[in-house]
Specification:
- The structure holds 3 protein chains of 3 kinds.
- The C terminus of chain A is likely disordered.
- Chain A is an all-alpha fold.
- Chain A has 11 helices and no strands.
- The longest helix of chain A is centred in the C-terminal third of the chain and has 38 residues.
- In chain A, helix 1 packs across helix 3, helix 9 runs antiparallel to helix 11 and helix 10 crosses helix 11.
- In chain C, the strands form 2 sheets. An 8-stranded mixed β-sheet of chain C has the order 6-7-8-3-9-10-12-11, sandwiched between helices. Chain C has a 4-stranded antiparallel β-sheet with strand order 2-1-4-5, covered by helices on one side.
- Chain C is built from 13 helices and 12 strands.
- Classes of the chains: A mainly alpha, B mainly alpha, C alpha/beta.
- The interface between A and B is large, with 44 and 38 residues.
Chain lengths: 315, 318, 334
């Protein structure tokens, strides 16, 4: 237990440093934009300008600006938007993030559950028909970028066949296509990974031993093999979260879902720097937290974990 | 011949002719030979790769694609960026093999130009990743101790940074161009490669042959070059086949959010993104060709990577 | 004495990329209650495949029992359904694997792994299972069993893990224990302890043991009878005395000569060469190419079995009357 605590504290420390790096990066972004990033001629007025200068303390030297910037982020104050008058970044986040979160959670749940199931089935039918079919589909799933998949889905299922609505986020029927477009890639990745680790685990001596005990195939797969086979899947969850998050930028744009991703892409196109910075910091904090949780879960799942070394598979 | 015939009639020891009970000449040289021809690691891996039909399909596609990226634009009489509004949205025909886009540009020509850009981005990004990754991971793994500790902590922090968000931030500051996109993609992209190289080096550096050359006083750099690198090549090559498509993918993603390669260049991502709306009005070809080539290139790299992994994995070698 | 196991004319093949490997090519042997039989040979000689075949644990495909019978307590298990076979595994026949470092599941506690076989096969309560588990831990010599049941494999040393593996194998009181190189992965001092443990257990439980090994030192300690396998065939079998003091097959003698001994000053002589390729096994004696006494006949016809005593059999042409002349002449020359 003491080792677990030490491990957790170490991951926590790395997490804080990472967060600091990203905050500093956004600050460097702000001061490295030629001229003032907030000198905007359009859709802006005197008050906005004054608000911005006050928020970022532009009259102060850089190091004071930097410290005050960190302070404002630590208090969850991301400042005003340039392009959307009378809106703060916080307003946008509180409006957009719940929707993006909903989309993301449904996607992850679908991807993880179906990905693992497909992976197990393929491994148990190794070199069989089902194995080839599912893995063929999985390779395709990885190969098609989600914005192309989304467009094809809209074209076929929404416009041609009119089974699902084309856009927006209102009812479960509206959710089908965006979730499908977003989940296919991660699902395919999880399925392939589960399959390959499962195949490797199934050749291990302890599986032979379990067979020699006369256990049923069901117990061998779910009690002995799966837990070990899922370790690598847990380790890539952080990357998958990140992938799904950036995926929402695209999917929300295509399906006109009023989520945070859409605001983010708009802010990039309009060079709305406070929104870009605030959202980046917020997203990063979210992802880094997810990565931290994944690490802790991994530590719980694998009793062998070497606390002084991430992953611990080398032992 | 006679002996063979006799053999069939042998049923019991008594039927065996007495003259067979004489000492046999021993061929000692033959004894030491291994019965099957031994193949070198790379020959063996290559033989296995060739047997993998999907991987070969991927490899052939990529070779053809590279050739077309070089000569494709020359096969067409059209300029890559020449707009011709009267020729807007021409379906594929003898005139325009892949049709024309919303500005009347020839999709065939643009597809191969796009191949140049996309492949260039992918290859260069992967090459930079590999170079930094090998140097960083090699030193970290080989030196061990404090050096390793510090280098690994840095990697852990970089690894925790959300890759695409950092890329977006950089491109917002630097402005998207071919150079800045490659820079942004590689600035934290090498971390994965460094981890793989380090893991391999850690594993191999304690092998007897490495210890042996160390005990002969061989220089560190030579050990890394001659002993460690060849033995870590397998996983590095596999990782490379996965880095290239992910760079192409990332570039396509950046095009979508408006941070892709800017005119006059046109990557597949830019082409596909420009045509997303067009498909709904029935001009499928404008999206189909770039989308097909992005997807098939991903597919090719993925199956080739899988094949290489199987072919290069010494664990499977029997 | 009760006959526990009888293997008749067993053939096992593996279908691979390169062709079909004939891993076991007609093996006959038997085992009585309370007896320890050692199967000895180089790696790849088919000894592990034979033991896996008895458990019906040969991965299929590519492996297959193509011919022969395995009669366990009067019933041919090769005809059993997978379900019926599962009821035997771990209960009547148990198995111990070579490497204790990999034979235990790293993510489950020792207690779970020890008790799950019991729970699978016997209708008992958790408390009873735990009691039995503690009893087994005691039997194999692990101190503080109650606490250690809650621990994970990585918290045990190699020798301790092998003791646990043995406890797992014995927890359902099997009639037959197959130990596949049980000491190969261990330190020499630990090896001796584990072998000691085997003897103790056999005394207490009367279990029959098949010991698969390439280490004749191990065999000398605990075996009653010995089978020597080469290239998928049994080339010599006999009691421990017969094999150690009157080895007849040149291969058996070669094996014995490659073991260091304290009682002679003879030089160690390794057997030169490698075993034949079992993709296309030779039709004659497979050892011919490496045999210092090879005759013309050896390549052409597989040797008929010669009976030295009721218990001692050898497949070698040197036992033929006509070869004895040659041998006599050779000994005169030198």
């Amino acid at each position: 237990m003491k080792r677990m605590l030490k491990y957790t504290l170490k991951r926590l420390f790395i997490m804080v440093v990472t967060l600091w790096v990203i905050i500093t990066l956004t600050f460097l972004l702000m001061i490295s934009i030629p001229g003032s990033p907030f000198n905007t001629d359009q859709a802006s007025n005197e008050t906005v300008q004054a608000n911005l200068e006050a928020h970022y303390n532009l009259d102060q030297p850089y190091y004071i600006q930097y410290l005050l910037y960190i302070k404002s982020i630590a208090t969850f104050d991301f400042g005003p938007s340039i392009k959307q008058p009378n809106q703060t970044v916080n307003d946008l986040l509180s409006r957009g993030f719940p929707i993006s979160f909903e989309l993301g959670i449904i996607t992850i749940a679908l991807a993880v559950v179906s990905g693992i199931l497909v992976g197990i089935i393929a491994a148990l039918r190794h070199n069989g028909f089902l194995d080839y079919v599912t893995m063929g589909i999985a390779v395709l799933g990885i190969s098609i970028p989600n914005f192309i998949l989304a467009t094809i889905l809209i074209q076929q299922l929404a416009v041609n066949l009119e089974i699902f609505p084309t856009a927006t986020w209102r009812s479960p029927a509206h959710m089908v296509l965006p979730v499908l477009a977003l989940a296919t890639g991660p699902m395919a990745i999880i399925a392939r990974l589960t399959r390959s680790t499962m195949l490797e685990v199934l050749t291990q001596d302890y599986i032979k031993m379990a067979k020699a005990k006369g256990l049923s195939p069901w117990k061998i797969v779910f009690k002995h093999a799966l837990r070990n086979a899922l370790m690598p899947v847990v380790t890539i969850m952080g990357t998958l979260f990140a992938g799904i998050l950036t995926g929402t930028f695209v999917i929300e744009q295509i399906f006109a879902i009023p989520g945070m991703g859409r605001y983010f892409v708009e802010s990039i196109n309009q060079r709305d720097y406070p929104v870009i910075m605030g959202t980046t910091v917020f997203y990063s904090a979210f992802l880094i937290m997810m990565l931290f949780i994944v690490d802790i879960v991994y530590g719980i799942l694998d009793p062998r974990i070497k606390m002084h070394q991430k992953g611990g598979k080398s032992g | 011949m006679k002996a063979e015939k006799k053999l069939e009639s042998v049923q019991t020891p008594a039927h065996i002719p007495d003259e067979w009970f004489t000492w046999k000449e021993r061929d000692t040289e033959k004894l030491e030979q291994v019965s099957r021809p031994s193949l070198s690691y790379w020959q063996d891996a290559w033989r296995r790769l060739v047997k993998n039909k999907m991987a070969m399909l991927g490899l052939i596609f990529l070779v053809l694609l590279t050739i077309m990226a070089i000569i494709g634009p020359m096969l067409s009489p059209y300029e890559v960026n020449r707009q011709s509004l009267p020729n807007q949205f021409q379906p594929p025909s003898m005139e325009h093999w892949f049709g024309t886009d919303s500005a009347g540009r020839d999709v065939f020509t643009r597809t191969w130009y796009g191949a140049r850009i996309s492949l260039f981005v992918g290859f260069i990004a992967a090459l930079i990743d590999v170079t930094i990754g090998i140097i960083w991971g090699g030193i970290s793994g080989y030196k061990g101790g404090r050096t390793d500790n510090v280098m690994m902590r840095i990697i852990e922090v970089l690894y925790g940074l959300p890759y695409l968000l950092v890329v977006i931030l950089l491109l917002v500051v630097l402005g998207p161009s071919l150079g800045t996109i490659i820079l942004a993609l590689t600035i934290t992209g090498w971390v994965g490669m460094a981890r793989i190289v380090r893991g391999q080096v850690l594993q191999i550096k304690n092998y007897e042959f490495v210890l042996a050359s160390k005990s002969f006083g061989t220089k560190t750099s030579r050990i890394i070059r001659k002993n460690l690198l060849p033995n870590t090549m397998g996983p590095i090559i596999v990782q490379m086949t996965l880095t290239i498509p992910s760079a192409i993918f990332a570039e396509a993603f950046l095009s979508f959010i408006g941070l892709g390669i800017q005119a006059p260049f046109a990557s597949w991502g830019v082409m596909a993104n420009d045509s997303l709306g067009a498909i709904l009005s029935g001009n499928w070809w404008t999206l189909f060709f770039p989308a097909f080539f992005i997807s098939f290139t991903m597919f090719a790299f993925n199956v080739l990577g899988d094949g290489l992994q199987d072919a290069l994995d010494p664990k499977l070698r029997k | 004495m009760e006959r526990i196991l009888e293997v008749n004319d067993l053939h096992v093949t593996f279908t691979t990329y390169g062709g079909t490997v004939q891993a076991v090519r007609g093996v006959d042997f038997h085992l009585d209650r309370g007896e320890t039989l050692a199967i000895v040979g180089e790696s790849g000689c088919g000894k592990s495949v034979t033991s896996n075949a008895i458990m019906r644990l040969i991965p299929s495909p590519p492996g297959k029992i193509t011919k022969g019978s395995i009669v366990f307590k009067g019933e041919d298990v090769t005809t059993y359904s997978e379900k019926k076979m599962r009821a035997i595994r771990g209960v009547d026949i148990s198995m111990i694997f070579q490497d204790p470092m990999t034979a235990l599941n790293p993510t489950l506690t020792i207690g779970t792994q020890l008790m799950e076989g019991l729970k699978e096969h016997k209708k008992i309560t958790r408390a009873q299972a735990k009691e039995k588990a503690i009893e087994m831990m005691d039997l194999v010599g692990i101190p503080n069993p109650e606490e250690r049941l809650k621990q994970y494999p990585h918290q045990f040393s190699g020798g301790m893990r092998q003791r646990i593996v043995i406890a797992i194998a014995l927890i359902c009181d099997p009639d037959l224990l197959i130990a596949d190189e049980p000491t190969t992965a261990l330190d020499v001092t630990i090896q001796a302890q584990i072998l000691e443990l085997f003897s103790t257990i056999q005394e207490r439980t009367g279990v029959s043991i098949i010991l698969i090994t390439h280490d004749l030192g191990v065999v000398a300690k605990i075996a009653d009878r010995i089978i020597v396998m080469y290239a998928g065939k049994i080339i010599e079998s006999g009691t421990k005395r017969e094999i150690f003091y009157q080895p007849k097959h040149p291969y058996t003698r070669g094996l014995l000569n490659s073991v260091p001994r304290l009682d002679t000053k003879e030089e160690l002589k390794p057997i030169v060469g490698t075993p034949p390729d079992l993709f296309s096994p030779p039709k004659g004696c497979p050892f011919t190419a490496r045999c210092p006494y090879a005759m013309e006949v050896c390549d052409k016809v597989y040797p008929a079995q010669a009976t030295i005593s009721d218990t001692h059999h050898v497949d070698c042409w040197l036992q033929d009357e006509r070869a004895k002349w040659l041998l006599a002449a050779k000994s005169l020359q030198t």
